[in-house]
Design a protein that fits this description.
The protein is built from two helices and six strands, in the order ββαβββαβ. By secondary structure, it is α+β, with helices and mostly antiparallel strands. The chain is globular and about 30 Å long.
Amino acid sequence: MCCHAGSSCNAISRGDCLGGGGSWLAGETCPSAKCRVDQLGACCLPDCSCDSLSKTDFGYGNPFTECASIGGHYLGAGTSCSTLPCGTIPVGP
């Protein structure tokens, strides 16, 4: 599933999603509460560390872009770093 700024989502390929500026959430289906941009969520970084981000941490207005701006992969609204989710998440294209 592909999440877009503004909390919308659609079912397109991962490549089309990332190429169109969306955030890919594998294994999810639309509609999904994980696309909400008004909640905290886990951001997996390239070094497999995790950071909880809000929609305003870096001034982009949504957590998907916030996470991507630091090279990460956003796991969606309501996700948490407390479960150590980043050890197996592939980051990057």
